[in-house]
Amino acid sequence: MSVLDALPEVHSQGPPGGPRTTSPRSKVGPIRRLLGCERATARHSWVALGAAALLGAAAVVSAVPAQAATTINPGALGGTASVCANAAAAVDLGTLGGTSSSALAINELGQVAGTSTTAAGYRESFRWTRSGGMQALGTLGGHGRDWAPAINALGQVAGYSTTTSGQPHAFRWTPAGGMQDLGTLGGTFSQAFAINSINALGQVVGLSDTASGEGHAFRWTPSGGMQDLGTLGGTSSEAFAINALGQVTGDSYTAAGDQHAFRWTPAGGMQDLGTLGGTFSQALAINALGQVVGDTTTASGERRAFRWTPSGGMQDLGTLGGTLSGVPSINAHGQVAGGSTTASGETHAFRWTPLGGMEDLGTLGGTSSGGAAINGLGQVTGDSYTAAGEQHAFRWTPAGGMQDLGTLGGTNSYADAINGLGQVTGASTTAAGEAHATLWIRC
Which of 3, 61, 293, 375 is at 20 to 30 A from 255, Cα to Cα? Predict the structure, then answer.
């Protein structure tokens, strides 16, 4: 997640009730430009607010001393203990023949999903495993800008691929069956675009257009196919995440033209989660307890991170002293990670817990950082600017603080996901200036 991604943002969508833009968030920062492709953050099609605050006056914040990561080849993973000289090793996952790749998601087995350019210049999805390396997942017949942002515990991957008609369709890829076209809701396109788009049961969520051209959230199941989840009274909706119970979260327009977060359950359908007094909310992640996180506006128009629970409703998570906060990730314990502005106008990564509230995770010496994901141990990953102005991925732990994960020999890196072993995925520039999918492992 880029530092800019840490800020609460506004959809760059059409007028209320109109069709949404459906491509993921565009590139931000040096790595994004090198990748030449979109990012798989939970949010897509956004315009960042308060970007100037990210580049404010410098302030050195205490953090674990930065150290360069040891770079190893995937084939050397069997000898990790003797190869690693530092606390983290950056593993170059390579490409599918092109010059850029990005690792977007990781499961508990250390299997990675992402996207890479090919020798022909197309972008295709991949799955990387320790035993098999980077495997191309194929396409749905076309050549375009395929995306694979999600992988479940069984190694099944969700994303979207270009069809022979040139339109993107959501897919589910399995080791046994390969890439399966999930179809549409009667229209021409569909997308599974977020890191939590597939659950352990192989159910997939995303966005598709209907026969009338409206964009609706969907849930796809192996037994029932693609199901239209409807809206909150407006004409469009989208789904970002699904938990193990098949509960879905996302956002939808209301009959009044406002955009509200929702939680959908098989038994109860789509539920409006409301706001903190404003007219906007969006939900980005959901855990196994049905707890939802995202951001919303207050009555005064400020953007705030929230956590919604079935028993307590929507809770304002506050800020680090500033006026803005946002959160893209929640773990099974209800702990969340995100970013917030401080009283001095900087943006810092934070971890929020039910017992301790919001904790400032600091930076790697620069003026801004952002939290992208949190695992079940409460460890957080994201990226931060260093004192030298470079963007580096980090891993933060309760015992060790913020650790610079380094790069593949270049100057910049970012992180998207972290699993229960503390393994982190993202991308880094190499010494040659290319951006490659990266796996950081603990040593």
Answer: 293
Q: How far apart are CA 369 and CA 380, in angstroms?
A: 12
User: What whole-number distance in Å separates Cα of residue 241 and Cα of residue 219?
Assistant: 10
Distance (Å, whole) CA 76 – CA 35: 26
* Domain regions of the chain by residue span: 4-442
- Rounded-to-integer distance, Cα 74 and Cα 130, Å: 7
| Number of residues in the chain | 443
**pTM (predicted TM-score):** 0.86
Per DSSP, the three-state class of 42 is: coil
Q: 339: which 2 tokens?
A: 């970013």
Give the separation between CA 73 and CA 110, rounded to whole angstroms. Answer: 15
Q: Are strands 70-72 and 88-92 parallel, antiparallel or unpaired?
A: parallel
Q: What are phi and psi of 119, to 5 degrees?
A: -60, -25
Query: For residue 260, which of 251, 268, 269, 271 has the smallest C-alpha distance?
Result: 251
Bridge-based pairing of strands 391-397 and 347-353 is unpaired
**Distance between CA atoms of 190 and 169, rounded to whole angstroms?**
5
Model confidence pLDDT, tens digit, residues 301-328? 999 999 999 999 999 999 999 999 999 9
Mean pLDDT of 235-240: 98
Confidence label for 44 from pLDDT (cuts 50, 70 and 90): very low
What percent of the chain clears pLDDT 70, i.e. is strictly above it? 80
Close Cβ partners of 294 (under 8 Å, ≥ 6 residues apart):
249, 251, 261, 281, 282, 283, 284, 285, 305, 306, 308, 326, 327
Q: Tokens 């090198």: give the residue.
A: 34
Q: Which fold has domain 4-442?
A: Methylamine Dehydrogenase; Chain H (2.130.10)
Scored b (16 or more CB within 10 A) or e, 62-78 reads ebbebeebbbbebeebe
